[in-house]
């Protein structure tokens, strides 16, 4: 009888220990593929609210969701993990792969008039070191112009490696890179230094937003592209992280959308 | 001593049972958010090759990847689970939510000239019962025109519930739905029956591809939308699963992309 009591006591401890373990470590018992696609854990169908962020991000990337101002609070962690994890890099690499394949297949004019338009922030350069700060929270905290400008002035933004690869391919093919950015003209020198430091060292034009450019991003970028076309250039490609880079007038023969779930520029 | 032996024996059974359970059910012990976003399982960093399909699908949905002919073989299971699981439905619901919010905020002419363009396949109606067949494999097996036409002729395609919601909202607001589909004219009756059966019962026009419409999807849909505009209609919204529904001429005041990782129409 005493032995039975000990046995019962021991097995209870094991059972309790197991149960609390499951809860603590968030162990998920589900077939792997299903698990990754279904926003549920466990066979009981417990829903993880944060996984609605998958639909949110898809809506952002396809431009179904427009004029949003902040990353939803419940998606702050999701966006952080996405940006710092491998998936963001993989998604960028996939876009770059398509752009490189497209560029290599182009029949060029050979007259030096073929250009490729590159946006800068979150396209050629990454502000992730800034956006990962706790007072920025991947875009879940309201944009602070003073703070962001201070970061830009440091000139420390790293390249997005895969887009640097697009740039190098484009250059090697004889297509002239043109940077068009919403950054203000007074940051021109610091941007030049930053771009060159990380590997972007050659371009036909670096167009920043002047004092008189007061319209929307679409208007500004459209007008600058139209000037290029009027000057006889052919925009064979156009790559940016915002849809405002890729819509409007003279968008180019083909556009490429780089992922960016951190902010929306209208 | 005998009691200790029993105790040891019992606890071994528990331990072995637990261990084999872990293996059998594919239990993953990792922090939930990291796990879902990083294409790895376990702390050892084992990569799941299939998860490259996340980047592939994003490239499809953003139109970075164009003119693709088949779902990559390694993504067949991924696409299947996505389409049959909750994520596809959630993604559709998210698009529908944006479209409904946009429609409700519109200032309408009140003259009966406001129209909303709906695509049919994979937008208002779902061919998922067909695409889930083993000889179709969610688009991982080459398209078979005869088989697909036989399915269409059955007139059994269900509605996509969330897009039916968009349709009902649009109707209730006094915006006239217009269907423009790449389906051939000889399927007109069966499509009408199918649409009505699942809840789409009212439209200003149902435009199918005629014998003389031999161009690309973009050309066909652009020309039909242009006819609408020339007839004095204002296209306030446009929803489709293919980018060819949403680019070209007179695309409408705003477009909405419904997810579709099963096929690409150029």
From TrEMBL, chains A, B:
Pfam family, one: Acid_phosphat_B
Signal peptide start-end: 1-19
Listed SUPFAM superfamilies: HAD-like
CDD domains from the UniProt entry: HAD_VSP
Keywords per UniProt: Glycoprotein, Signal
Record keyword Ribosomal protein present: no
Record-stated family: Belongs to the APS1/VSP family.
UniProt lineage: Eukaryota, Viridiplantae, Streptophyta, Embryophyta, Tracheophyta
Name of the molecule in the record: Acid phosphatase 1-like
């Amino acid at each position: 009888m005493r032995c039975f009591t000990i046995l019962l006591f021991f097995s209870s401890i094991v059972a309790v220990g197991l149960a609390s373990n499951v809860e603590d470590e968030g162990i998920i018992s589900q077939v792997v593929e299903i698990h990754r696609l279904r926003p549920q854990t466990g066979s009981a169908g417990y829903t993880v609210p944060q996984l609605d962020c998958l639909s949110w991000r898809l809506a952002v990337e396809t431009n179904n969701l427009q004029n949003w101002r902040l990353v939803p609070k419940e998606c702050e962690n999701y966006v952080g993990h996405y940006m710092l994890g491998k998936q963001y890099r993989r998604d960028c690499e996939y876009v770059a792969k398509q752009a490189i394949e497209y560029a290599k297949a182009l029949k060029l004019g050979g007259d030096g008039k073929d250009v490729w338009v590159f946006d800068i922030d979150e396209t050629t350069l990454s502000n992730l070191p800034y956006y990962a700060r706790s007072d920025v929270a991947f875009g879940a905290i309201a944009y602070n112009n003073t703070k962001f400008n201070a970061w830009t002035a440091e000139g420390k933004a790293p390249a997005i490696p895969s887009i640097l690869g697009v740039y190098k391919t484009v250059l090697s093919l004889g297509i002239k890179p043109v940077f068009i950015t919403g950054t203000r003209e007074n940051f021109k020198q610091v941007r030049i230094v930053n771009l060159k430091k990380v590997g972007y060292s050659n371009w036909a034009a670096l167009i920043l937003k002047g004092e008189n450019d007061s319209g929307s991003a679409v208007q500004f970028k459209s007008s600058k592209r139209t000037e290029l076309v009027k000057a006889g250039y052919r925009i064979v490609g156009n790559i940016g992280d915002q849809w405002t880079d890729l819509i409007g007038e003279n968008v180019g023969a083909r556009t490429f959308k780089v992922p960016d779930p951190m902010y929306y520029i209208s």
